[in-house]
Amino acid sequence: MRAVPSRDKGRAAVLYQPGAPLVLMLALLTSLAVSSCGYARRLLPVRWSEGFGYIDRRGQVAIRPAFAEASPFSEGRAAFSDGSAWGYIDGSGKAVVPPVFEWAGRFSEGLAPVRAGGRYGYMGLSGDLMVEPRYELADEFREGRAVVRRDGRYGYLDAWGEEAVEPRWLWAGRFSEGLALVVGESDCGYIDSDGAMRLRLPPPSSLPRAEGGNGPPQETAVQQEPPDIEEWQSRLDYHLFSEGLAPFERDGKTGYLDREGREVIEPRFQAGEPFSEGLAAVKRDGRWGYIDREGREVIEPAWQMAGNFSEGLAPVMDRGIWGYIDRGGSVVIRPSFDSAGIFDRGLAAVAIGDAWGYIDRRGGYLWVPTGPLTPFQVSSPPRLPLYLMDAALLACLALLVWGLFHHLLLCRRLRAGEEGQVLDDFMRSYHGSRIMRRIRRGPFALSDHLERLERNGALFLWLTAAFLALLWVPNLAFLALTGRGMINHLFFHRNAFPGDDPLYLSLGSLALLALAAYLLAQRRLVSALLRRLRETPPDDGQPADPAS
Q1: Is residue 496 pLDDT above 50, yes or no?
Q2: 37 pLDDT above the threshold of 60
Q3: What is the SS3 assignment for 461?
Q4: Cα gap 377→374, rounded to integer Å
Q5: For 265-310, how does the pLDDT look when each residue is reduced to its tens digit (9 = 90+)?
Q6: Helix (H, G, I), strand (E, B), or coil: what is residue 215?
Q7: C-alpha to C-alpha distance for 369 and 349, rounded to whole angstroms
Q8: 521 and 407 in contact (C-beta within 8 Å)?
């Protein structure tokens, strides 16, 4: 990634001394650039025909494709497979745990489930095996507890690998807001982290099972081949508490109750999901919509499927295609994806066929979907427009810096009493022969011209400040959030963008700040000349001829 040389930054600190606000603008640029660099290091998995690799949150390739399978990063580690076994890598792509496991999950609260010899245990961030593989199934840790299955029964481990709740349930879900749903032969309800029953419920009519289907809970023998672990883990979010409410079932209908067991929303829906951002997806008459915490229908049931809200948007399906709606029910990203995830820090994973990519909240691609048929290549935008933009900004910056120094030099000479020479140099350097002829025509024409320059300088200074406030600062904010300037994002948006944004944004920011400093210095010089002319008018009533 190119950057402005350090000697230019040092010189800039001198140039901006005439106006203190300019130093603040430079500090803003620096802080935003630093924040964007930190933002960009959160890596995302992508796939090519050569295998899986990772990009950063600016859409640049961070780890080249080298893995048969790969998972998202969590707590600085990501599980990967070489095709026969699983291990873990760090943010540089280096294998910190070699591929020796049959399967490896994501880290959560310092531990990750792993499978060896057909059984599940837990690995620590240090790479040591913290819990020996002895469980038939094992989940990630949530709120200090992890669901495990032993001898066909479900229980919970604590963060030290001890069985905090003995496996004795036919089914158990994840903890959320201090409670977890469990189902036994004769009882059902929510328990706390110590296993004490806090809220009893009638058994639901259907419940996700380890076998991967829906049906009434029942005791089963230990399976020879465990079910798809990721599918099983996704079913552990069944009837979670969220925002103080949880779905429950009665007579085949779904409603919502609070942590005290009170029915806040009576059962009248075919199905319901946990609340997110004040809304919950519910199914009525075969279609999905959303209700608020009072049970009022705020988005009418109009979708085949609907997901949770995150960052103000929720994925919805219409005719087999996914898009996104806002909290008012308006479609903000039209349905065009075969699969869609929720937004996380401004990005969401989407799929077209078996190719996956990432979009921002406007629906623009950070990463155009790639898949097993996409050859790996680092594409880049046309270079000539970027080079021309950089060259033009550099030329403008050089001219403004030269003009600024010249104005400051004239101000210094004016303070030394060289009024006539300063006026002569100022008129020769910045004004053509047409202005010179107008000045010769009559008395006080020079003062009129300088007053006009003073007014115009103030106007241009205000316009520059407005441009900075209304356009350039939002452009820098866009860089901090996405890693891209708005111009390059709109016109040169590609996968693996090589990162010229910091250069043109730095040059553009320096040019704008130099323009403001130039206008301030010119206004100061013109005002000083006007004061001297008014204090010592020419004896003959005519201005001095600058061309003489």
Answers
A1: no
A2: no
A3: helix
A4: 9
A5: 999 999 999 999 999 999 999 999 999 999 999 999 999 999 999 9
A6: strand
A7: 9
A8: yes
In this prediction, residue 421 carries a pLDDT of 72
Instruction: Say if CB 401 and CB 409 are below 8 A apart.
Output: no
The predicted model gives 532-539 an average pLDDT of 62
Instruction: Extract the tokens encoding 243.
Output: 């925002």
Burial 338-348 (b: 16+ CB within 10 A, else e): bebbbbeebbb
Residue 383, classified by CB atoms within 10 Å of its CB into exposed (0-12), middle (13-18) or buried (19+), is exposed
The CA-atom distances, in angstroms, between 438 and each of 435, 445, 537 are 5, 7, 18
Residue type, 192: D
Residue 277 backbone zone (phi > 0: left; psi -120 to 50: alpha; other: beta): left
Half-sphere exposure of residue 227: CA atoms within 13 angstroms, side-chain side: 17
Q: Are 70 and 79 in contact (CB under 8 A)?
A: yes
Strands 180-183 and 245-250: unpaired
Residue 48 tokens read as 């090519």
Give the whole-angstrom CA distance, residue 242 versus residue 260: 14
Taken as a whole, the chain contains a residue count of: 548
- Give yes or no for a contact between 278 and 292, defined as CB atoms under 8 angstroms apart: yes
Q: Rounded CA gap, 1 and 77, in Å?
A: 25
Whole-angstrom distance, CA of residue 515 vs CA of residue 408: 14
Starting at the edge strand found earlier in the chain, the sheet holding 339-340 runs 339-340, 348-352, 355-359, 365-370
Q: Is-contact 298 281, C-beta < 8 A?
A: no
List the strands of the sheet with 271-272, edge to edge. Answer: 271-272, 280-284, 287-291, 297-303
